[in-house]
Amino acid sequence: MNNQLSERINKVTPSATLEMAAKARELRASGKDIIGLSLGEPDFNTPDYIKDAAIQAVHDDYNSYTPVDGYVDLKDAIITKFKRDNDLSYDRSQLVVSTGAKQALYNVAQVILNEGDEVILPCPYWVSYSDIVKLAGGIPVEVPTSINTDFKMTFEQLEAAITPKTKMLWYSSPCNPSGSIYSKEELRGLADVLQKHPQIIVVSDEIYEHINYGVTPHASMANFEDMYDRTVTVNGVAKAFAMTGWRIGYIGAPTYIARACNKLQGQVTSGANCIAQRAVISALTESPDRAHYMVEEFQERRKLILGLLNTIEGFSCNEPKGAFYVFPDVSAYFGKTFKGKLINNASDFAMYLLEHANVATVTGDAFGNPNCIRISYAASEKEIREAVSRIEESLK
Ligand code: PMP
Ligand code: GLU
Q1: 5: how many CB neighbours lie within 10 A of its CB?
Q2: List of domains in the chain
Q3: Which of 205, 208, 243, 376 could bond to 237 as cystine, CB 3.0-4.6 Å?
């Protein structure tokens, strides 16, 4: 039979992070000793107080369909969280709980974008942004940045990227993959540019908010009064509470956008999982600082991996201020041959490391930056040391 798949799905690139993780799993199953530094997820277990809340929810017979946009008491917990952590006031009509921040982002693209609308993506951007935008008929407009500006887009670059077709600006801060954080002043600068373009909606992905190493305090675009009505604040529990598999994310948005997301979700997945939602109420309200030990641990590992990588010639790293990735520029290796393999680009380089160092990383191409690779340091100290030593050995 001919390929009957839609043009839509044929245009989608598989998620490079998930694909690399699957490849690493496969190689491990075939007996290879692979160190996986490709997938961005905390290597901690979900804290016990959150697990207990989930177990209690099972016993309390939370088993029915949930409201499409989330339990009311979960929404109230999110309202408390936004006020406490971000000084943002949302009411229930402005919130939608989804199956992960990924679905939240997907919803927003689907309800805002028309065919041919442009979405500005400062590079590097999180792997799924461009395909989520394309799936909604949008056109990703990539704005390249480099290590020289700590991988942040300047005001001038934003101004230059805007056209009459620009409908949205999407970014994550702290950024996956660079770990960069836009300060409040920098966000204000971007907001000033946007003042001249009132049609542009901003998606501020703040899922790494709590993985912050204290250099640049977290700031939210919606915090500016003149941006509040056109900003969608995306967040979730995957990273801050080591709950990647529980699949809960959420948005705070203008009511008309939240309503539209609710309508879409009602036709696609219905409300998010009942037990996970109950557990998230605990995560967000019961002393959220209890998960802070993870950040302290990540900070130690960041120091370790930066120290180790900086001793390898050809690796050029910025200092990530948040999240748990390093994003070294490895372009110094392009055009060189190792063990008979010519490295032409970051994809070749990541593949070389997988095959010859048994270390899984992700090519920067997937994040819109072809000079870099992404290495997750959400791994044990032993794994980090071993991985870097293998990388160094393979490049001799
Ligand atoms: N945004 C960013 C920047 C991410 O790194 C991720 C990765 N998980 C997501 C959104 C999606 O989060 P979730 O697991 O809650 O779908
Ligand atoms: N956000 C994580 C990452 O960037 C999880 C993988 C994914 O959802 O694509 O690795």
Answers
A1: 8
A2: 7-45+291-394 (3.90.1150.10), 48-287 (3.40.640.10)
A3: 243
